[in-house]
Design a protein that fits this description.
The complex is a heterodimer.
Chain A lengths: L1 H18 L3 E14 L4 E14 L4 E7 L4 E2 L2 H11 L7 E8 L11 E13 L2 E14 L2 E10 L20 E11 L5
Antiparallel strand pairs in A: 1-2, 1-9, 2-3, 2-4, 3-5, 5-6, 6-7, 7-8, 8-9
Chain B lengths: L1 H26 L2 H8 L31 E12 L13 E10 L4 E8 L4 E11 L11 E11 L16 E12 L4 E12 L10 E12 L4 E10 L3 H5 L3 E10 L2 E8 L6 H6 L11 E11 L12
Antiparallel strand pairs in B: 1-2, 1-12, 2-3, 3-4, 4-5, 5-6, 6-7, 7-8, 8-9, 9-10, 10-11, 11-12
The chains are: A alpha+beta, B mainly beta.
InterPro entries (chain A): Lipid/polyisoprenoid-bd_YceI (IPR007372), TTHA0802/YceI-like_sf (IPR036761)
Pfam families (chain A): YceI (PF04264)
Protein name (chain A): Lipid/polyisoprenoid-binding YceI-like domain-containing protein
Chain lengths: 187, 309
């Protein structure tokens, strides 16, 4: 009977360990892009970004449906999808990387932690290494993530035609703002 | 005791299984999970850019302007190429149509225009009631109802003669059905009914029916080749007049669309294009022309600056 109790105890403890959540996700993540020129500011918002973080490994992934970017002018949106990112050919942008300083984040303690993320950003079928600074905001069971970084369209083989070159900035700012919830895998 | 031991083993086994499952899930690729969860898998999106402008060439396309978008359209048709070097192969003569088209909603557009040909004013309403969705055949086509009225404001040839206002009017009703088959190819069918309140002779028909077939094929990201043909259904009009056939080359630059075109028709509205066309390609009655459309966005409230996200 002693053995039984001991093993039962181990079992319960063990299960408890297994249930601990280490992966967080969102499928309504908000990413917006911003281009500023003296002629015109262009802004597009995407609130259908799906993203996962694993706190065991610090791994972080994003899947961005390109057609979900909303522009103020419907014509801009059409041009963005048809001419620039070619959403029919390349429907998704993605990021796959790691939180470099994952050890410095205490997920049990509320607070805002500065983080550094580095990985591969894929847009328009072109993959390039990207490093960005951001923050993780731990609030109980919810984790907010924010970051701002820049890319250039040229790096991703996106050619801006001569006639509208003055309207589109050479450097595009990308803002990330997500709220993660614990992820429970379907059994 | 034996029994308890057995039960206990089952417990342990279940426990191991329960723990093993999340462990297995942990191993799979996060990227695959993210891709499976994003919105591209949930909702089908509307097909965009079936045609580049609100016109295929001269006839209307299924494209409508978004809400509070204004299009200014300038159309030119020069004279026929066979008019000789003295007329600079038609460039000395030109007719022009100026038009404004406006989106009341994304699906409902209105427009007005004025052609120098027969000093015609026209107004139209366009309503998109079905919109194609990407992928699959659940909503395979975009469909639009089009109705227009044209007013011929020419003074009567004989000043003594008085033409009643309603006799100057012509009505057009069209059903436009188009499908974007792939990134490059879009085709449209446009069954057309034109009613003329006054016709020149007793033999002329008041009601004319035609079937339009048109298409667009993209050549590069910003250029395309378009073709448009209106087939007159058998009748007096079909025997007397010719079917309109036009080809165009479109260049798109930001908010502008330039269309360079060749057509056997000088008409820029339906009644002149379809029911009143005399030019024949074989005879060299080819009109060179162009359309320029410029889109203005009038919705200031849609500005995103300062909007809370």
């Amino acid at each position: 009977m002693k053995v039984f109790l001991l093993l039962f105890g181990l079992l319960v403890l063990g299960s408890g360990e297994g249930a601990a959540q280490s992966r967080y996700f969102t499928r309504t993540g908000h990413i917006w892009i911003f281009s500023e020129t003296p002629i015109e500011n262009i802004e597009a918002h995407n609130k259908a970004v799906s993203s996962f973080i694993s706190f065991d490994t610090g791994e972080m992934v994003f899947s961005v449906p390109m057609k979900s970017f909303e522009f103020r002018k419907s014509l801009m949106q059409e041009h963005f999808n048809e001419n620039y990112v070619e959403s029919d050919k390349f429907p998704k942008g993605s990021f796959k990387g790691n939180i470099v300083n994952i050890q410095s984040v205490d997920f049990k303690k509320d607070g805002v932690y500065p983080v550094k993320v580095s990985g591969t950003l894929t847009i328009h079928g072109v993959s390039r290494p990207v490093t960005a600074d951001g923050t993780l905001d731990v609030k109980g069971n919810r984790i907010g993530a924010k970051s701002t970084f820049t890319i250039t369209p040229q790096e991703y083989n996106i050619e801006i035609p001569l006639l509208v070159r003055a309207h589109v900035a050479k450097i595009i700012q990308i803002n990330v703002d997500l709220q993660y919830d614990p992820f429970i895998a379907k059994q | 005791m034996q029994q308890i031991n057995f039960l206990f083993l089952v417990f342990v086994f279940c426990g191991v299984l329960l723990r093993a499952q999340p462990a297995l899930a942990q191993d799979d690729d996060l990227m695959k999970l993210a891709e499976a969860a994003d919105s591209t898998n949930r909702s089908q999106s509307f097909t965009t850019a079936t045609f580049k402008g609100t016109r295929v060439i001269t006839g209307h396309s299924v494209q409508t302007n978004a809400q509070k978008e204004l299009v200014f359209l300038i159309s030119h048709r020069f004279g026929t190429l066979n008019s000789g070097a003295y007329n600079f192969f038609g460039l000395d003569n030109s007719v022009i149509r100026l038009a404004l088209e406006y989106g009341l909603t994304d699906n409902l557009n209105i427009g007005v225009g004025r052609s120098s040909y027969e000093k015609t004013f026209d107004g139209f309403v366009k309503y998109r009631f079905l919109r194609q969705q990407d992928g699959g055949w659940s909503r395979p086509v975009t469909a639009v109802l089009f109705g227009s009225t044209a007013l011929n404001s020419l003074r009567p040839a004989n000043p003594e003669q008085d033409i009643m206002f309603k006799s100057r009017l012509t009505y057009t009703a069209q059903l436009l059905i188009a499908r974007k088959f792939n990134q490059n190819l879009s085709l449209q069918l446009s069954p057309t009914w034109i009613h003329r309140n006054l016709v020149p002779t007793r033999a002329d028909e008041s009601d004319v029916y035609a079937l339009g077939i048109s298409g667009r094929h993209k050549l590069t990201k910003r250029t395309s080749f378009n073709a448009e043909y209106f087939y007159l259904l058998p009748g007096y009009t079909a025997d007397t007049y010719t079917n309109a056939l036009s080809f165009s080359f479109d260049i798109e630059t930001g908010g502008h669309v330039f269309q360079l075109l060749f057509s056997n028709s000088i008409g820029m509205i339906e009644k002149n294009l379809i029911t009143n066309n005399t030019g024949e390609w074989g005879q060299g009655d080819i009109y060179f022309g162009f359309n320029i459309s410029r889109v203005f966005d009038l919705d200031k409230s849609r500005k995103m600056e300062g909007k809370k996200y």
